Amino acid sequence: MTLLLAYASVAAALSSGLLALLGEHRAAWTGPALQVAKLVRIPVPLRPTPAVGPHRRLPHAWRRMVFALLTASGVSALGAGLLQLHADAAVSGQLPFGLPWLHWHVRLDTLSAFFLVVLGLGVIAAGVYGPGYTRQFAGQYSFGALGLFTGSFVAGMEGVLIADDAYLFVIAWEAMTVSSYFLVVYQHEHASHRRAAFLYLLMGEVGAIAIILAFGILAAVSHSFAFDAWRDAHVTPAWGTAAFLLALAGFGMKAGLVPLHAWLPEAHPAAPAHVSGLMSGVMLKIAVYGLLRFAFDLLGDVQWYWGAIVLGLGTGSAALGILYAVVQSDLKRLLAYSSIENMGIVFMGLGLCMVFIGKGHVQLGLIGLVAALYHVLNHSLFKNLLFLAAGSVVHQTHRHDLEHMGGLIKRMPVTAGLFLAGSVAIAGLPPLNGFVSEWLTFQAALQAASVIDNGILRSMVSVAAAILAFTAAVAAACFVKLYGVAFLGQPRERRSAHAHEVSHSGMLWAPAMLAGLCLLLGVLPTWVLDAMRPITRQLLGETLTSASARGWLWLTPGGVSTASYSAPLVLLAMALAWWLLRRLERRGPAADVRRAPAWDCGFGGLSPRMQYTAAAFAQPVRRIFAPVWETVETSTPETAAANPLQVTALSYRLEIGDRSWRWLYLPLTRVVEDLARQTARIQTGQVRIYIAYSFMTLIVLLGVVS
């Protein structure tokens, strides 16, 4: 049953893409259909649709059907995941595809089921949001291409989750990567979008090579491409470590870990909003799934020093990701950098889990694993919510830059409220879900001091906990800046002043559903942890029994003697405090509501230029952590024509660059260019020389195979 639902999900996703492509080119098939209808004398109300502009304009009903199929794909994936989480055993099968000696094996267990739930929720939100959002592309961009590659993108991610052999896994992984490349370059007339798409594809393929090499090690040991054979194979610690490092490089590049993150802040802002939500909310989690599957399931024997490496990468990604985010003025670019921070938090939890497992402390390792999985689910919800709400803002204001926004809370009140919910969740504030998973990560780190005997490792975990606290504080400041500059104050531009709430209800219902789930997962964390027990039992052979030792009201990951948290009581206390303040406010005749102009500090009238800008808000952080960025500030005075000494205006420009380009990517580029020039010497232009090269390559390959 669960595999059938998974198959149905893949089929619905692919069908949505084919329907979009068929709808765009329907004039090509409705014409012959009319001719056939005339021959057989059947009245058919089909008419060829003339082209409008460079692309045919689809009826809105057809667009809704495409996204309805995409939503059905999400519902099927969600149903398959939820059912399998409560199943007694994994289900597997074999598809009649592939090569005669290399079939496609599929398997659905609790780990893939959990990520199917994550994927299903994201796809449902995209399917509900898409019809209204994509109307702006009508007649300008190909909806057939958008629908086709969105469907294949979703199907590729689903294929990765159900694959049970290296062959199908790599095919699905490449389908996911290539499809998302075309989605990033969808608005292809922008040179920045083409550059972002090429960078994404290049780094994605480099990561895929690393994954294939990691798979090759296990395939060489087991003499099979099937994951079942890999689970039973014995891999030496040296080869296991080599395979793990290759897998970490490949999956870490797709997850956007620093310093392999350069593609992420370029690609996510370039894609349409609902695609950005899928890439950040779902695709990054597929990389986490890949690493979990490889390290915990296929390799099995987790080493503590693997965890130390993962913990270091996660800590650095969390700190640098949020520091880069807080200085951004582009709305979607800020959200993209914050995804790096949140993936860093996920990998911190995974690193702590590996350290504890390698040292023999399974229950503490379970806390780290549960924290990582919980943050995977949480980030998929609130980041998807934020990207969809940001898409509505950009859709109405036609601006990405925060410096051109302001006052949107009065013009887009529902979107502003939903964006506030997402901001509170991603800032890690109670009672929403972001607080719970970050708190669990803290608990895992804080309990390391009493059980880890290695002084260097213990110090490393303590530093990671301190940096996690630092990132939480900077994240709160970052989203205070974003929300305050974009939604509060006065409009900084005419387009912001004339913005209004989105008219399509789906563009409100999709983020509203995600906001409700953020609240639900924040208030009832013990229920979520209970649902994760089958996953931890599959991966580690145990469950976190102490998480709800004091009942469903209290979250006690380390037992009743350690720190605990009650989200329902926190929510109740906040509601009572709000009610009490409202009562005090309305007591007596002096409590009448009066409206008056805001105090202008004696300036005689407020103007948008008096407000804090996004750059000014982040200036203290930028000054303190100046070595982190490549910063270029230029001030250009403008003088009066009659008097060159009289300065009439001063223009200020701030450019913030990523140091990883100068320290890593540009040197690598020069090395590759030098190697290419050296390799070019073998290009003789003589066919007989090329035949000799092919013959020598064949001899070498035959020697390797024999």
From TrEMBL:
<feature type="transmembrane region" description="Helical">
    <location>
        <begin position="463"/>
        <end position="488"/>
    </location>
</feature>
<feature type="transmembrane region" description="Helical">
    <location>
        <begin position="271"/>
        <end position="292"/>
    </location>
</feature>
<feature type="transmembrane region" description="Helical">
    <location>
        <begin position="111"/>
        <end position="129"/>
    </location>
</feature>
<feature type="transmembrane region" description="Helical">
    <location>
        <begin position="364"/>
        <end position="391"/>
    </location>
</feature>
<dbReference type="InterPro" id="IPR052175">
    <property type="entry name" value="ComplexI-like_HydComp"/>
</dbReference>
<keyword id="KW-0472">Membrane</keyword>
<feature type="transmembrane region" description="Helical">
    <location>
        <begin position="166"/>
        <end position="186"/>
    </location>
</feature>
<feature type="domain" description="NADH:quinone oxidoreductase/Mrp antiporter transmembrane">
    <location>
        <begin position="163"/>
        <end position="450"/>
    </location>
</feature>
<dbReference type="InterPro" id="IPR003918">
    <property type="entry name" value="NADH_UbQ_OxRdtase"/>
</dbReference>
<dbReference type="GO" id="GO:0016491">
    <property type="term" value="F:oxidoreductase activity"/>
</dbReference>
<dbReference type="Pfam" id="PF00361">
    <property type="entry name" value="Proton_antipo_M"/>
</dbReference>
<dbReference type="GO" id="GO:0005886">
    <property type="term" value="C:plasma membrane"/>
</dbReference>
<feature type="transmembrane region" description="Helical">
    <location>
        <begin position="6"/>
        <end position="23"/>
    </location>
</feature>
<feature type="transmembrane region" description="Helical">
    <location>
        <begin position="304"/>
        <end position="327"/>
    </location>
</feature>
<keyword id="KW-0560">Oxidoreductase</keyword>
<feature type="transmembrane region" description="Helical">
    <location>
        <begin position="141"/>
        <end position="160"/>
    </location>
</feature>
<protein>
    <submittedName>
        <fullName>Hydrogenase-4 component B</fullName>
        <ecNumber>1.-.-.-</ecNumber>
    </submittedName>
</protein>
<feature type="transmembrane region" description="Helical">
    <location>
        <begin position="334"/>
        <end position="358"/>
    </location>
</feature>
<feature type="transmembrane region" description="Helical">
    <location>
        <begin position="198"/>
        <end position="221"/>
    </location>
</feature>
<keyword id="KW-1133">Transmembrane helix</keyword>
<keyword id="KW-0812">Transmembrane</keyword>
<feature type="transmembrane region" description="Helical">
    <location>
        <begin position="508"/>
        <end position="529"/>
    </location>
</feature>
<dbReference type="InterPro" id="IPR001750">
    <property type="entry name" value="ND/Mrp_TM"/>
</dbReference>
<feature type="transmembrane region" description="Helical">
    <location>
        <begin position="562"/>
        <end position="581"/>
    </location>
</feature>
<feature type="transmembrane region" description="Helical">
    <location>
        <begin position="687"/>
        <end position="705"/>
    </location>
</feature>
<feature type="transmembrane region" description="Helical">
    <location>
        <begin position="241"/>
        <end position="264"/>
    </location>
</feature>
<feature type="transmembrane region" description="Helical">
    <location>
        <begin position="412"/>
        <end position="432"/>
    </location>
</feature>
<dbReference type="GO" id="GO:0008137">
    <property type="term" value="F:NADH dehydrogenase (ubiquinone) activity"/>
</dbReference>
<dbReference type="GO" id="GO:0042773">
    <property type="term" value="P:ATP synthesis coupled electron transport"/>
</dbReference>
<feature type="transmembrane region" description="Helical">
    <location>
        <begin position="66"/>
        <end position="87"/>
    </location>
</feature>
<keyword id="KW-1003">Cell membrane</keyword>
